[in-house]
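Final report, closing paragraph on structural work. Over the funding period we assembled a curated collection of sequence-structure pairs, and we close with a single example.
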Amino acid sequence: MKTNPLQYAKLLYEITRSKTKNEIDVLIPQVAQMLQNNGQIGKIKEITDKFSAVYNKNENIVEAEIISRETLPSTTITMLNAFLKTQGEDKKIILKQTVSPNLKGGAIIKIGDEIIDLSIDKQLNNLKNTLIN
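Its predicted structure, as stored:
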């Protein structure tokens, strides 16, 4: 039976969760060798993606992204991060900022599977649909 990427990710989490950085540095080449021996080295990207999800779930972390037309001031990011923490049921929030020059203004917030679209583009589209109807 072949081990799937999620199983490798869970194994990787289990063997690294109580280790120091130096201990992890020793383990990683061993894990890579195991993947090579099992003919799974080509799935390393998928395994690392799954590992991130396993790690975040077990460590009570939620990744969030804010997309805006321009880089937001650090004070705005700090306030948004604080707000998201109040909504996150004691979860740690990792907030990533993405700049998208295609937005006319406003922002789009992605947190987990939820999308909060506060963009000018969305508001203009809503206005257009209201006027058409």
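The beta strands are 61-68, 92-99, 107-111, 114-117. Residues 11 and 75 are 39 Å apart (CA to CA). We thank the funder for supporting this effort.
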